[in-house]
Amino acid sequence: MACGIDIGGSGVKSALVDLTTGTFIGERVRIDTPEEATPEAVAGVCRQLLEQLQVGDDVPVGVALPAPIVHGTVPFMANLDKSWTGVNLTELMREHLGRPVTGLNDADAAGLAEVAFGAAKDVPGTIIVTTLGTGIGSAVIVDGTLVPNTELGHLEIDGYDAESQASAGQRTAQDLSWKKWAKRLQRYYAHVEMLFSPDLFVVGGGVSRKHEKYLPLLDLKTPIVPAQLLNTAGIVGAAYQASRTRTS
Ligand code: BGC
């Protein structure tokens, strides 16, 4: 058993996870992301969540953040408070939670969860998991090994940051039809496919629930399937990684 915390733009969510099945033990708890989502404010929310779940000191805790985490530190933050830049997540959480945590990127967490328990379970080769939300997150996993912090949502395509054109958030913000949005996804996935020649794409994020509206419109050589864990993937992946990399 381990605990996962998933920090998102609208909510911070946590649960205890059974690592044999990748399912929650008990309920998931959630607190709105503070309006000013500074590192201190968010760490305070994480502490409250651990208290609500009564997570014991011996339980590994993983924290997923919507930013790359390079040796514990956040080099830049695209869609949460900019004051996260340069923060050492591991030290921040140790101060506020009084225990060691494992920090990782949110899409990396989702990717690990899909490989361990979901749509990419037992699939050999190169798997690319993308999460379509406010931004575009990516996880590249090769024969079970994660290449962390790939940030493929920020590929520059046709002069634009890819997520500023093709994220699910942009579909809503620009009121795009599924067909128009699928055209943008086509451009995006075809480019990633050309660069990586993956064996499988897995599409996560809230909008993967509506996959039948846009996945059939895509024309790629690579199989592309919806994620299976949906909104539990970030928490499950964070818990999974914490249990594998526990430090004291
Ligand atoms: C961030 C990534 C994150 C993705 C999804 C991007 O803007 O740079 O780190 O994984 O959004 O949240």
From TrEMBL:
CDD domains: ASKHA_NBD_ROK_PPGK. Pfam families: ROK. Gene3D superfamilies: 3.30.420.40. Coiled coil: none annotated. Keywords: Transferase. GO terms for molecular function: transferase activity. The keyword RNA-binding does not apply. The keyword Transferase applies. Belongs to the ROK (NagC/XylR) family. This is Polyphosphate--glucose phosphotransferase. It comes from Actinomyces johnsonii F0542.
